[in-house]
Fold each of these.
Amino acid sequence: MGRTSDYFGLPRWIREYDIKAGFETAIGHGVVKVILDTDLQYAHLTGIRDFVLSKKDYIMQQVEILRSRVWVREGEKTMSTRVKEVLHDFNTANQL
């Protein structure tokens, strides 16, 4: 696994939960609506976090505030990737 701090103190059952398998099980049982809000928020945050960590030294030296469109775009990229994955998991990719 890793250190507890890597998981922000989340319980083990949450850390080990396979969301894709959960979606497949739910769809197999006839679920037609799944709320992805938290999953997509996490995907968005992941892109922003990775950008900030990769530019940490640069950011610390700056007096001016970084343009938000740069780091927001990184969040949008990771969220878009997650949406594509979920559409594939739900067997709905390329349906429109």
Amino acid sequence: MTDLITLTGLVATNPRHIVTSEGLTITSFRLASNQRRFDRTQNAWVDGDTNWYTITCFRQLGTHVATSVEKGQRVIVTGRVRIRDWESGEKSGTTIEIDAEAVGHDLSWGRATFTRSVIAAKSEAPTAEAGTDSFDHGDAGPADERESASADEPQPALARSGASTPF
């Protein structure tokens, strides 16, 4: 059984990005997560203990995290938990690792802009004729909405260009 967990916290280290000799992309960083609580005696918010996690991202997620996440940013991470005990000489401890399934910026603390990555189509995939797509938009698709919008109403750049949506 794999345990899934969702965490929020601060990226505490610069993400470390590597590509193995087999071509596997791996990006990892440390995440600091602490709980805040309201102390009624002090009439103020106080920080609780900080929990430290090692976040590891593989393949395409690793590539995206390496180019999108920086030290000091607040993020949300969902992934599988691995708890490991370690020993080094006279010291020992426990490390908690998260194999990430999803990583994103915590929008409670700021704004972000999403850019969808497009993977090139394989050459044997069927191609659509110019000006058409392979999706059934139904009766009220994006093209119908563009045609019915009045010229006085502001339209998004994609609608003004006449292009179809990329998904």
Amino acid sequence: MKKIASLTCVAALCLPAFALAEVPADLDTDADGVLTIDEVQASFPEVTSDGFSAMDLNADGVLDEDEVVAAQEAGLMPPTES
């Protein structure tokens, strides 16, 4: 029983870290967990296709949560509220 309680506490402490790494909901208009160039440009029209490609580290045509964080840390995308 103590193991379950300990694991529950650890999981609860880790949840905020996972929440910080989500794709911003206000940008993800179709709620699929990734951002397309159209979704990014709707909020940040200054982002060019070349700029988007620079953010798309795995070149799959969308930005996942890790790519959004990396783009924001690199100054390629402005920080977001969510």
Amino acid sequence: MGDTAKVYLGPAKVSFGKSDPAVFDLTKGVTLTFSQSTHPVTVDQYGEQPIKEIVTGQEFAVEVAIAESDFAKITKVIPGSIYEPADKKLSIRNAVGIDLLSIADQLTIEPNVEGAFDTITVLKAAPRPNVSRSFTTTGEQVYTVTFTAYPDGDGEIADFTNV
């Protein structure tokens, strides 16, 4: 029988950056996606029946919906943006040509309630923003960002640590 004490529920804290992390207030939770692509190997003698399957790639991504409009933090997740504190202005510039790996940094997902679930550390994650702001009386203005993970020099992508 399973261990019901290891069934977790709860909101998370997300921080981006290892040396000077930006910690975000979120809405609608955090979505972590991990998938593998494979190639089924076939030989003529077995027709379309695969005789084995080989992993050809992996994708690890984390999507967050940032609820706070702190431009100093938002600048860290919108490639090509510049925050001018004196003018209280966030300028979004053309980001064509930016190598996302060059701006990848550590992303950490921690439970808001101690012991609620594992802490997840993505070693190299680069932000890809998808901003859609709705100006209504019943909805938060949200900066949705998908962080794409890249392997480090040893091929490691993320660590899951029991708390």
